[in-house]
């Protein structure tokens, strides 16, 4: 289906871009009241922690949705891409919340690394949430799973250098 690896890479990035943007936006636009309201789970640990905020969650969904609208306008498929943008953004942020929930249960502190979970949790849930609208080819899914960890690590490193993140991972 894809003539060369560059086409495949471009298709993968184009598809998952709203999730990437949604996942990164709270680093820049987040802050404020935590989603869990500071409440503790039955194990006495935070549900998600102070880094998962209402403003970050809403801004991430808005950014992914707006990107989906722009993709739809660029392709002439506004309804498809706006729905995908919203679902990919929502899935990415739900995946990030799930990752934080799991990390708190494992007694990992905020910002502690959890390889695989940190890099792929958000993208896997994004793909699941988008699946009612569109399931990409297996090649695109595989490419997304391969490129996401290094992209995630690189963007975190850049965020750290820009003093947007405390840790470079």
What does this entry look like structurally?
The structure is a single chain. By secondary structure, this protein is mainly alpha-helical. The protein has five helices and no strands. Helix 2 (54-75) packs antiparallel against helix 3. The radius of gyration is 16 Å and the shape is globular. It starts with a helix and ends in an 8-residue tail after the last helix.
The biggest sheet amounts to:
none
Molecular shape: globular
Mean pLDDT: 95
- Alpha-carbon distance between the termini? 35 Å
Integer-rounded radius of gyration: 16 Å
Percent range for β-strand residues: under 5%
Low-confidence stretches: none
Query: Helix and strand succession?
Result: HHHHH
The assigned structural class equals mainly alpha
Tell me the layout of helices and strands.
Elements: H1 5-29, H2 54-75, H3 78-105, H4 117-130, H5 138-161
Helix pairs in contact: 1-2, 1-3, 1-4, 1-5, 2-3, 3-4, 4-5
Throw out a few tags for this protein.
single chain; 169 residues; mainly alpha; 5 helices
């Amino acid at each position: 289906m894809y003539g060369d690896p560059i086409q495949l890479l471009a298709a993968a990035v184009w598809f998952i871009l709203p999730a990437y943007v949604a996942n990164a936006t709270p680093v820049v636009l987040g802050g404020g009241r935590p989603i869990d309201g500071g409440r503790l789970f039955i194990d006495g640990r935070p549900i998600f922690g102070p880094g998962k905020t209402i403003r970050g969650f809403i801004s991430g969904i808005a950014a992914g949705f707006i990107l989906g609208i722009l993709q739809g306008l660029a392709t002439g498929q506004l309804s498809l891409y706006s729905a995908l943008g919203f679902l990919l953004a929502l899935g990415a942020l739900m995946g990030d919340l799930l990752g934080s929930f799991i990390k708190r249960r494992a007694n990992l502190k905020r910002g502690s690394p959890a390889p695989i979970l940190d890099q792929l949790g958000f993208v896997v849930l994004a793909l699941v949430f988008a699946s009612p609208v569109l399931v990409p080819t297996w090649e695109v899914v595989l490419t997304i799973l391969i490129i996401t960890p290094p992209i995630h690590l690189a963007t975190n490193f850049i965020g750290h250098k820009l003093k947007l993140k405390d840790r470079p991972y």
